[in-house]
Design goal:
By secondary structure, this protein is of the alpha/beta class. It has six helices and eleven strands.
């Protein structure tokens, strides 16, 4: 550990991360990509949020899909650097709409955390969540004629105000003049079957073609934790359900 030299915390008031986790992350990243199994992934995502990293150049990069990422790198042995710790920087990252990319100088980056991954870390203290009641939506979303549902607005611990602002800005940029949202609960009287979905008032009719609609939905999903289910519905599908985003 004495081989790692750190500058003091940066001007924004951050502190050094966990040195043991920093060394473990550095060791993990020496393992070639083809050899990184599920155990490797589990260790990596458990420790990366508290490890010391450094800002790479350029600071902001755009992925091939057009998403903005804050560009970070691991530190070298004996290097003096200004520490950047993901967990400490979450408020800044989330309010500016960034994901985090790690070691993009390599042919294949070591990891890419979406905005939604960072949001989940802030809300649930983990990048990825396995146990939840969001539905596993595949294909079309259909509500039965007599199906009993509960509708409401997603709470702050599902969709905080700063995340709403990111979605609203994107949808308005995409030409949706009055973006609205609701949370739909199905089978809510049965704890073993209950599920929920986030719904937005958009359909392919809001876009030039179906491909643009699907692209927009993928972009929206980038802003959300991976276990969230997202559906697009016409505004009049559910009475008194949608509210301004």
């Amino acid at each position: 550990m004495s081989n790692l030299h750190f500058f003091d915390a940066n001007a924004e008031g951050g502190n050094l991360g966990d040195l043991e986790k920093t060394l473990l992350i550095n060791e993990l990243l020496t393992i070639p990509l083809p050899e990184r199994d599920n155990q490797w992934v589990a260790q990596f995502i458990e420790h990366i949020a508290d490890a010391n990293l450094a800002v790479a150049e350029p600071e902001i990069i755009m992925s091939t899909e057009g998403f903005p990422y804050f560009n970070l790198r691991t530190v070298e042995t004996g290097e003096n650097f200004q520490a950047y710790v993901i967990r400490q920087k979450l408020p800044t990252l989330l309010r500016n709409g960034f994901g985090v990319a790690l070691n993009t100088r390599k042919e294949n980056p070591d990891w890419m955390f979406s905005y939604g991954d960072l949001l989940n870390l802030e809300l649930r203290d983990e990048f990825y969540t396995d146990e939840h009641i969001f539905s596993k939506n595949v294909g079309d979303f259909l509500l039965g004629k007599d199906e009993e549902i509960l509708v409401g607005q997603p709470a702050e611990d599902i969709l905080p105000g700063y995340a709403r602002a990111q979605l609203r800005e994107f949808l308005e940029y995409s030409g949706v003049t009055d973006p609205q949202i609701m949370l739909i609960a199905r089978n809510y009287t049965d704890e073993t079957k209950v599920s929920q979905d986030l719904a937005l008032n958009i359909t392919p009719k809001n876009f030039a073609n179906n491909q643009e609609y699907e692209t927009a939905m993928r972009t929206i999903a980038w802003f959300l934790p991976k276990h969230y289910s997202l559906v697009g519905l016409a505004a009049d599908t559910v009475d008194n359900g949608f509210q301004p985003l």
